[in-house]
């Protein structure tokens, strides 16, 4: 069963999660993984079951004329659906990693020309020890059971921090590290940063 990426993204942004499946099956063919909203831009992450693989799909959106408009999508395949409980940091590349990121161009002429004309986002993964993630803009997000989050931005890539149950910093990740100037439209790159 396919899903309507635009409708499901808007539903997720406006209503949040309605379920927390631990895996996909023949009956449950897709699930919302993560989403982030920052001002008038947003990103959503869904996983859907394909033939012999799982498709991880990220959609970028902008709020225009009173409604959310899907700008574009990108993603990757994996042999796992990514919905299992998060592993300990020792089994990952640290307590906080970013495995992929990308951007989508904003509609031409819809925003001031002196501002970036694209929406960027990055996939984040946190370990079992992490209780929350500071997205670098004064907002804490609780670590989900599966440990996968998204962060979206327009101007400068944020510095995100993984926090333990006591609020102590466990890892810091500068999403600008190693990035070039404004990525090209449609770019979706897989990259890893250790925290």
Summarize the topology:
Blueprint: H1 5-15, E1 30-38, E2 41-49, E3 54-64, E4 67-78, E5 96-105, E6 118-126, E7 132-134, E8 140-142, E9 148-153, E10 159-163, E11 169-174, E12 188-193
Antiparallel strand pairs: 1-2, 2-3, 3-4, 5-6, 5-12, 6-9, 7-8, 7-10, 10-11
Question: Please, could you describe this protein's structure?
Answer:
The protein is mainly beta and 195 residues long. It has one domain. Helices cover 6% and strands 46% of the residues. The chain is built from one helix and twelve strands. The protein has one helix at residues 5-15; strands spanning 30-38, 41-49, 54-64, 67-78, 96-105, 118-126, 132-134, 140-142, 148-153, 159-163, 169-174, 188-193. A four-stranded antiparallel beta sheet has the order 1-2-3-4, covered by helices on one side. Strands 9-6-5-12 form a four-stranded antiparallel beta sheet, with no helix packed on it. Strands 8-7-10-11 form a four-stranded antiparallel beta sheet, with no helix packed on it.
Spatial strand sequence of the major β-sheet? 1-2-3-4
Tell me the number of strands.
12
Low-confidence stretches: 178-195
| Main beta sheet | 4 strands, antiparallel
- Overall pLDDT confidence: 84
Counted up, domains total: 1
The proportion of residues in beta strands is over 45%
Helix content: under 10%
Quaternary status: single chain
So how many helices?
Answer: 1
Order of helices and strands: HEEEEEEEEEEEE
Class derived from helix and strand content: mainly beta
Shape: globular
Radius of gyration: 16 Å
Distance between the termini: 37 Å
